[in-house]
Amino acid sequence: MTIGRTLRRALCVALAPGLASAQSVISPETFLDAVLGKTVQFHEIRSGDLVGTEQFLNRKTSVWRVEGGGCVYGQITTPNGQICFLYDDDTDGIPVCWWPFEYQGRLMVRLADLGKGEIQEVRSMTNHSLNCPSAPIS
Predict the structure, then answer these.
(1) Which domains does the chain have, with CATH numbers?
(2) How far apart are CA 109 and CA 123, in angstroms?
(3) Cα(137)–Cα(32) distance, rounded to whole angstroms?
């Protein structure tokens, strides 16, 4: 299933000032193709602050680490054109979902909750492991 034309248009308008005209929504599969087997640093687009680092172990499993924090494993799903993460420490059982997109050749994600404007940019992508204990077999 893909995002409908109206929803895509709403996403373009809701992104952030200056981003809507040149952004291109990409499929979760395209996003996963780019990050599979990589460790990626996500930075908040407005402040530039590091949000955290995620290692994409395979298409269904990732491990997330907030700077100075421990490792949390996540299950990846791709419903309705979104990429969603349900982490081991999520007590409510509700995944966090993002719309992946590209802007001027940069890989980004926008929180799928249109009421919130959070956008994160991939600023670093390496082959280095997060060295988390008890990593699931990929």
Answers:
(1) 5-126 (2.40.128)
(2) 12
(3) 18
- Helix, strand or coil, per DSSP, at residue 56: strand
Residue 20 corresponds to which tokens in the numbers above? 């809507």
Q: pLDDT in tens for each of the 138 residues of the chain?
A: 334 433 333 344 344 444 455 679 999 999 999 999 999 999 999 999 999 999 999 999 999 998 788 899 999 999 999 999 999 988 999 999 999 999 999 999 999 987 777 999 999 999 999 988 765 554
CB atoms within 10 A of CB 98: 22
Cβ–Cβ under 8 Å, residues 2 and 78:
no
Tokens of 35: 């990050």
**Residue length, the chain?**
138
